[in-house]
Amino acid sequence: WSRTATKADGVLSVGGVPLTELVREHGSPAYVLDEDDFRARARAFRDAFEGYEVFYAGKAFLCTTVARWLAEDGLSLDVCSGGELAVAERAGFPMERIGFHGNNKTLGELERAVELGVGRVIVDSFDEIERLARVTTELGRTTGVLVRVTAGVEAHTHEYIATAHEDQKFGFSIAGGDALDAVRRVLAAPGLRLLGLHSHIGSQIFDTSGFEVAARRVLGLHARVATELGVVMPEMDLGGGFGIAYTTQDDPSTPETLARGMSEIVEHECRALGIERPRLSIEPGRAIVGPSMCTVYQVGTVKEVALDGGARRSYVSVDGGMSDNIRTALYDADYSATLASRASGAPAALARVVGKHCEAGDIVVKDEFLPGDVRPGDLVAVPGTGAYCRSMASNYNHALRPPVIGVRDGKTFTVLRRETEADLLATDVGVS
Ligand code: LLP
Fold first, then answer.
1. What is the Å distance from ligand 1's center to 46 Cα?
2. Is the same domain home to 252 and 315?
């Protein structure tokens, strides 16, 4: 839960706004974004990682409001598509504080990034280095470049979001020699200014040993570039991926602990290699925005089923589902839920919070104990939905993507409005 979530008489409030009122005003389902909590987390990373450049990973959740908060609070921004870049541009985000990611940026995206003057393009393939070099020459511009490398570590997280083992699409292999080759090619291109190496090992990671091994290997390459190519790169980006608590089982590290750990490893390694410490940056997304949002749903139907062995489970169907939170279906992610609109003295019963989509895998919360009298009309809130929920939301079954409602000091403000059927039909130009 965000820091300002409280419950009185069974009614959950966030940012001083009772969710019953929020739903009365804005409808359901809705994502609720706690401004103070978001900004406190962003500043906590900025302050704990003093001397680092902290890039917020926009893929976790991005809109102009959040981009403005980040700009004001002195963070930088990682974008990974022309669309995210467009949001940053509209928000007036300082372009020199943007890092542009992606393993297959289009020519158009690269041209736009160079024209806008983004601070760093993180290159991810030989094709891209060549393409970016051409773009800078044609536009008569230069651009800062980081080379994304693969450290060859197995991050302990879901297979789909681990990115530092060899057999996946991101980065240049350090072990295989491509990374050094990529560095050479960047150095040879007149429009590209080599700033450093970049490593991101995966997401929702708790075991920090993966970061350690990666940092060691990337620093090893950094030192080789100095000795073999005579080039001292000023920077190094160690990526994001810091895990958050989705349930009470998870025990995430604080930004301070992460910063201390990372700085110790880097300092130790730099001493051992006899090199100067490059200016470091990190890219947390989930750890900033994840806990600062929850989703509030209204219950539509409740159905009890018998389980093997005689136990029972109630299927609590809410007015959203896998279109606003695909993570449970896609990564088998765990979430929790709470009755948010009233107190209940009913004994807790095993429940599964499911959506309204046409497939059985449309599950929001796999297992939760909710009061046994949960009924249609109740509101249920799911915490920790700030990261990769709205940003991965879809219009499956022609669902309208929910709004993001900001809350602060007892007031609400619309950050992203609810989609309408007109929005959906606007792209359907087949029949006039
Ligand atoms: N930097 C790079 C280069 C990344 O690829 C990512 C995430 C991040 C930073 C931020 O990672 P974070 O701190 O948010 O973990 N959709 C998945 C997560 C995919 C992460 C993709 N890259 C999920 O819902 O778990």
1. 18
2. no
Pocket mutation for ligand 1, best pick of 283, 327, 328 (most atoms within 8 Å of C-beta): 283
Q: Specify the pairing of strand 411-416 against strand 53-57.
A: unpaired
- How close is the Cα of 239 to the center of ligand 1, in Å? 9
Q: What is the CATH number of the domain that holds 341?
A: 2.40.37.10
Alpha carbon distance 318, 82 (integer Å): 34
Asked whether residue 309 is domain-assigned, the answer is yes
For residue 161, how far is its CA from the centre of ligand 1 (angstroms)?
A: 7
- Which of 38, 45, 59, 293 best tests ligand 1's pocket when mutated (most atoms within 8 Å of CB)? 59
Domains: count for the chain = 2
Indicate the residue type of 17. V
Same domain, 379 and 234: no
CB contact set of 191 (below 8 Å; sequence gap of 6+) = 132, 133, 135, 136, 137, 141, 142, 143
Q: Which domain holds residue 12?
A: 6-32+291-422
Same domain, yes or no, for 176 and 218? yes
Please state the ipTM of this predicted complex.
Answer: 0.99
Does pTM top 0.95 for this prediction?
A: yes
pLDDT digits (tens, 9 = 90+) for 324-343: 999 999 999 999 999 999 99
Residue 84: its H or E element: helix 82-90
**Structural contact between residues 380 and 336, judged by C-beta atoms closer than 8 angstroms:** no
**339-363: per-residue pLDDT in tens?**
999 999 999 999 999 999 999 999 9
Give the number of other Cβ atoms within 10 Å of residue 228's Cβ: 11
Q: For the chain, what is the mean pLDDT?
A: 96
Q: Cα–Cα distance between 15 and 145 in angstroms, integer? A: 40
Nearest ligand 1 atom to the CA of 198 is: 3
